[in-house]
Amino acid sequence: MVRLAKNPTVNKVVGDQCMFGGEFVKPTLWLTNAPHLNILAKQCPGAPRHVHEKLVGLTRNFWGETVFKTSLAAEYLQGLCEELAKAYLLELEHHPVSKEVGQRKIARTLTRFQKLLTERRRMSSVLGG
Predict the structure, then answer these.
(1) 72, pLDDT greater than 70
(2) Of 23, 50, 76, 111, which sits with the fewest C-beta atoms within 10 Å of its C-beta?
């Protein structure tokens, strides 16, 4: 990771999870050479507009188990996944590949994304979220 971060073609993109619908600020670092991922560089404006509980200590999860709060923020958020999908779709639309290949990639990506969203919504309704 250190060697990758020092590579001059790699950018560091930092985005706060709260900007994608999370309960906590939780800055997330992306090492990338893909300029379309700059869309993830969104920082929390902070108090008083945006106030969050600190991501430290213990709490109870959905099942009533005692867990570290950080474990609740481990999963990528729906909003973050949607922003990533949009970024990749935009990149595919503008990438210099043949139009036919690009359209097939876009169609496959959209189909996979729609399946993931459907499954996520189904799981959310099953778990009561």
Answers:
(1) yes
(2) 111
The pTM of the full predicted model, rounded to 2 decimals, is: 0.65
CB contact at 8 A, 1 and 15: no
Helix (H, G, I), strand (E, B) or coil at 11: strand
**DSSP annotation of 40:** G
pLDDT reported for residue 67: 93
Q: Determine whether 25 is exposed, middle or buried from the number of CB atoms within 10 Å of its CB (0-12, 13-18, 19+).
A: buried
Q: Into how many domains does the chain fold?
A: 1
**Is the C-alpha dihedral spanning 97, 98, 101, 104 positive or negative?**
positive
Instruction: Write the single-letter amino acid at 123.
Output: M
Specify the pLDDT at position 102: 66
Helix (H, G, I), strand (E, B) or coil at 16: strand
Host domain of residue 10 = 2-127
